[in-house]
Amino acid sequence: MHISEMVLSFPVIGAGFAATIAGTLIGLLRLDPDKIMTTALLGAAFFVASLIHVPIGGAQAHLLLSGLLGFVLGWAAFPAILVGLVLQAILFQYGALTTLGVNTFNMAFPAVVCALTFKPLLGKTPLAHPVRTGIASFLAGSLAMIGSSLLTALSLAFTDEGFLISAKVLVLGHLPISAIEGVITIAAVTFLAKVKPEALFPAKPRPAFQTPPLSGE
Amino acid sequence: MFEEHFCQHDSMVHRLDPRARVMAAFCFALFLAMTSSFATAGVSLVLTVGLVLLARLSLMSVSGRLVAVNGFILFMWLFVPATYGGEPWLSLGPIDISRQGVLVCALITIKSNAVVLLFIALVNTMSMPTLGSVLSWWGAPSKLVQLLLFTYRYVHVIGREFRRLLTAAKIRGFSPRTNLRTYRTYAFLAAMVLVRSLDRAERVEQAMRLRGFTGQFHGLAEFRFQAADLAFCCLGGLSLLCLAWLEWMA
């Protein structure tokens, strides 16, 4: 899923950085300063969850959960995924830094679009309409992944027309995994709606707490 | 669960100013992304191998990292030479291996490994808090730097929490297979990790407010730009110029 270093052409790298900077700025501007810690820990949780390898036939695929991430974080998905990819590049040397812009956009944009499209379908009480909730979650989970693989394929195809067939293989290879993502997203959204609805529908932030200045300052 | 081997050594490279190291790595990577000749790529690979040697990193773990990085490259080698088009170089039954396809893959492999080695030598040799300070020194938004540092701080904790949940599931007889039950179990595991991290975020946030955190982050890293750093920057700039000349000649 991640495009590694030096595969893409310079214009594609530049466009990726521009789009990621724009998305990250929107995400940061909309991010309440009181929610930084929550966003950071959710980002860490998604980072850990993406290390889960699920069996699929004889092979294994790792989860992405970007549909769920969009549901929980909204626009903050952009900075959260950017941070996750930097961490990944530093901790595992997996993924890459020059393609950071492209990879962040390819993952975050479908997540945000799917969240904006399908989250309203959950309504205020997702558990009251299990079928509607299920369909919305499945679509968000699987379409976010398909969207990411399509964007990855487009980045390759725009770099070099000779990569076109490889790009198609990439998208086809992700189709079965995206169905599993959808199923997992249904179960996870239902679980969160039961156990911790605040995760899906954050409460209004508390009024900011003013710390009195230290004496002597 | 996540280990950083490379920042705990000491060497000439480790002692260089982190700001200069990040800057050099970034400029070099962007430059290499623009080049398309084997000469430039080959010389860059030699240079970066030299840097890794100078940083005195364990070659075992460096090559371990390289294996992980080359997964995507392997995918390209599997599909691109056979589907690139252009003049055929080798025919294997119905498949024509194209000459250009092989050349493109070879170039990408060399360049990609050069950049990864460069980042291992220059960026992975600093700790994450230092990288955070470098980013904020360069004017990255403070919210973003805080996100990075808090995520880094808690990714280990949450990783352990996930391990604990997984152990609990295994003790109860969970063994992953291709079925709905497995997927549901993993979904509940992931969702439970999210719930735990939300609860933890609240506790951490309260503890930080209690200690007077007002949203300002004070880094402890102090940067000093010394003669060695100046020499490093000059050498870096010089080698970039030489490489640019090489690229232009090729």
What does this structure look like?
The complex is a heterodimer of chains A (217) and B (250). Chain A has 8 helices and 2 strands, in the order H-H-E-E-H-H-H-H-H-H. With 217 residues, chain A is mainly alpha-helical. Chain A is globular and about 60 Å long. Chain B has 2 domains: 148 residues, no CATH class; 77 residues, no CATH class. In chain B, strand 1 and strand 2 form a beta hairpin. Chain B is built from 9 helices and 2 strands. Chain B is mainly alpha-helical and 250 residues long. At the A-B interface, helix 1, helix 2, strand 1, helix 4 and helix 7 of A face helix 2, helix 4, helix 5, helix 7 and helix 8 of B.
Question: How do the strands and helices of this protein lay out in sequence?
Answer:
The complex is a heterodimer of chains A (217) and B (250).
Chain A: H1 10-29, H2 36-49, E1 53-56, E2 59-62, H3 66-73, H4 77-91, H5 100-118, H6 130-159, H7 164-195, H8 197-200
Antiparallel strand pairs in A: 1-2
Helix pairs in contact in A: 1-4, 1-5, 2-4, 3-5, 3-6, 4-5, 5-6, 6-7
Chain B: H1 12-15, H2 18-34, H3 38-54, H4 59-83, E1 88-92, E2 95-98, H5 99-122, H6 128-137, H7 142-171, H8 180-210, H9 227-249
